[in-house]
Design a protein that fits this description.
heterodimer, A: about 450 residues, Rossmann fold, 2 domains, seven-stranded parallel β-sheet, about 40% helix, about 15% strand, globular, B: about 170 residues, alpha/beta, six-stranded mixed β-sheet, 7 helices, transferase (chain A)
Chain lengths: ~450, ~170
Amino acid sequence: MDRAAPHVLYIAWGFPPSRGSGVYRALATANALAAGGFRVTVLTCERESFYRYTLADPTLEERIDSRVEVVRIPFDWPVMDLDVRRWDRERARRPRAWTLRRVEQDQEGFPEASYGPWLEPLVAAGRALHRRDPLDLVVATANPNVSVGAAHRLHTELGIPFVLDQRDSWTVDVFDGTENPDRRVHELEAAFVADALEVWFVNEPLRAEHAARYPASASKIHSVANGYDLELAPSPVLSAPAPEQPLTYGYIGTLTPRLPLVEFGEGWRTARERGGVVAGARARLWGHLGFFAVKDASLSHVLEQHDDGISYDGPVPKAAVRTIFEEIDVLLLILGAGRFVTSGKVYEYMASALPIVSVQEPGGDSARVLEGYPLWFPAADLTPGAIAQALEGAGRAARESDETVRRRCLSHAEQYERNRQLGPRVAALHDAVSAKETS
Amino acid sequence: MKVLLLSTTSRMSRAWLAEALEPLADRDLDLALAVLRRPAEPLPVRRCLVLGASLRPRRQVVEARTQGGPRPAPAGRRRKMLRKLDRRLLKVAPDKYGADNSLLFAAGAIWSPQLREEFRGADLVICLDLATTWAGWHLARRIEGPEVVFSVAGAVRKLAELEAAA
């Protein structure tokens, strides 16, 4: 890499081998920065943290651009440390009180439970990297927001411009719209937004919400959708399945208690009872149960209750997801409620050119993205009848849609290819940093 | 893999145990169990040690019947007298001791030769609830060897960590 190229530090807690939901954006951003002419150093935590606390997918490390340097620093998550041999006496004797106290302590320096104590190690590592090879820009992805806290500190101490890439929202609950009650969080976010070179959100509703909150900074707040990665996206399905073959409806993604799985099950059974295309069909659900290393037992129960052609087929490594799409005729987009919720999987779904059934409370942002996709079948609400109707419509479309319709689906999806989302922003950052160096 | 479970759950049933261990269901485990109070029914474990709700250290633990196992000998006169004594002691003890399951469990666990023997022979010890970590921690300090974790979630993680390291 050209030593004259601007040097960017990308701070992300969840970076490969993490298998967390934000990792694909982090990976794509680091790679896009490298492709966009930056020398990229990623600051993240040690691999062991993902193996110990969340889950890891080692295959993702192979996808990091070879020009990207990854610096890993220790990350302690004592509350999540369940090894009793490592506990101190006080924790062993009164574990509940110890945990409550620890959560409070974590937030003394930075108001973010569990991650707060990581601020100082991040800042120290950032300073050391700047001494070794001066930084021209810092891009920090949240959450955790401590990454942005570190970028902001490097900005105030060393004058390095920074970009806040917010995949969620720190001040608003994206599912129910409630405000974060911690005053410090609001103050910090205001400072971050005011001082950032750019602020990115994952969808238009979040961008608009924050642009309204911070009108003086509105012009630098952008929507950078997750989009889909060309190399990971499914191959488009341009023909209908064989007529004698029963239809397979499929869901691919993390299954969490926020998803309306019970409602989906009821809608599915209603559709089967009515006969028609769904009667002989199967619904297969792939993905992790919950976000953490241990399966969410409440979800296991929900999935076990269904015996009308619904099966839970377990998690799939990201590298194998493409092959799973080949087994599906209709995609199930089952999402939690919330006007700020888009979900990353909607983009990959569209890239498949398959019919898509949305099962979500009306008002979610995925509807905006899917508007205009020719084979989109949203359930009008979460009643069994409405869900059944959407399932039937999509089933008929799977049988009847020809290549022309499916190519139109593909055209609609292409605007959300990840590089089309990230590319303009990376180019703008490169110009901004280069202009600063020239002046 | 030999696993020792520590629990203060009252009247433990087979269904409760199966649900608690569901995340480990695909593993071949040789289970032993130490509980504070007698389970509701014989459980599918190799050995079930009942510590008894008592503040008396060095008390003898009782082997409860396991699923498919032989019926244990009936309690003798001496054991019945001790049980009565334990109940009286708990009644007169201040609540902060008598109602403290963590203390009751630890008092029974730490000096029990049977439990120490099980602990020493285990590959993994799982403290199933917060009231058993005190006993688990004390035993871990005295006896080298087994991994000692809190909760089944901790066990899943520890096993994944060990497998990744291997």
